[in-house]
User: Fold this.
Amino acid sequence: MAPISIQTVLISESVDPRCKAILEENGIRVTEKQNMKKDELMAEIKNYDGLVVRSATKVTADIINAADNLKIIGRAGTGVDNVDVDAATKKGIIVMNTPSGNTISAAELTCALLMSLSRNVPQAAMSMKQGNWDRKKFMGAELYGKVLGIVGLGRIGKEVASRMQSFGMKTIGYDPITPPEVTASWGVEQMSLEQLWPQCDYITVHTPLMPSTVGLLSDETFARCKKGVKVVNCARGGIIDEEALLRALESGQCGGAGLDVFVEEPPKNRALVDHPNVISCPHLGASTKEAQARCGEDIALQIVDMVQGKKLVGAVNAQVLASTFSQESHQLIKLGEAVGAVLQSCSASNKPCSQVEITTQGDCMKSSTGYMTSSVLVGLLNHGSGCCPNLVNVLSLSLRNLESR
Ligand SMILES: NC(=O)C1=CN([C@@H]2O[C@H](COP(=O)(O)OP(=O)(O)OC[C@H]3O[C@@H](n4cnc5c(N)ncnc54)[C@H](O)[C@@H]3O)[C@@H](O)[C@H]2O)C=CC1
Ligand SMILES: O=C(O)C(=O)COP(=O)(O)O
Assistant:
């Protein structure tokens, strides 16, 4: 692959200073501008090859389509739900994250919320500051011997499990991808959600936000839980349906909630935050010195490695590029593009092809299958198609071309 040239990067949020320092040490000019409104960002983004964000910058299709020079969106953190990844892919922009830098911090905050829910620590602290000494009101319950349901057994779910096991909690869980035998090795028994809901004293969710996880806890699922179940959401607002949660808190079906994340941040509707049985934080899961240092450093190093043609780590939408960082792949990509260009010029009718078959032979071509197809398509679409194909967007552009025929 031809090296990706990144000369200017905009950091639009508070990212650890190491990020800027590493980029600058490697010859990249960096501008930091926080709290920009959408229109400001749309105007500003035109000047940059790269954008680094956390969760607050909403990188919508409008922003992406205004970003004429943008080649990479770097997420210094895990969730990329604030980035329109489809729009970025169509525009040929790489989206990259640093998924393990804040795992421990998010897991520790989850555990802090579970403990606070069991012992009313925030409410008791507030009451003390108001001059009270109310021992009876804040009677709690031990975590020891209680059942914790963990929905989403990835990086953070796993760390939460091991920490809460040390408090003597029984950990059960559900994940459609992580195999039960793997989670069993870290002491989490997997079962269906139908089996899980009625067993839990506490439930914590650790999934990405996507259609299948929106409203995992809803009126219907709260009704299947034990009365008084306590829930924690340190993942994404909306995985626990906020209106259903409020109804469950009011009826007592839910005995308390620890919320780090909200559908709207900051939440304009304060009903949950103000509820006496809710402990909330302003999205602090990754807000530790250590997590920020890791994520800031990781995203900068990942961008530099990519620019220097060393490797591609953390790309969420451009996996085909990962195998294009060797000298022979550069030659093969050039060859593929040339083959595509020849095909295009040979097409008598000048109409786009409806089908292209690429056959490679020989052991040395085995690892090139993904990018050979894409590079031939780049050559084919490059001429006169009005679009700017690259290895990131060419498959979606080809599909779009086919659909519009
Ligand atoms: N509050 C904060 O500041 C932070 C929040 N997060 C969020 O925490 C969440 C989890 O992060 P990681 O553990 O790093 O992600 P991960 O990708 O390691 O784990 C997510 C797990 O959810 C599972 N999953 C997917 N669909 C599911 C479903 N329908 N039901 C149950 N499980 C399902 C996946 O198979 C995967 O194992 C993400 O939403 C991330 O954005 C991450 C870091 C900090
Ligand atoms: O990494 C994540 O998914 C987070 O939610 C952390 O968000 P933040 O970087 O603190 O805005």
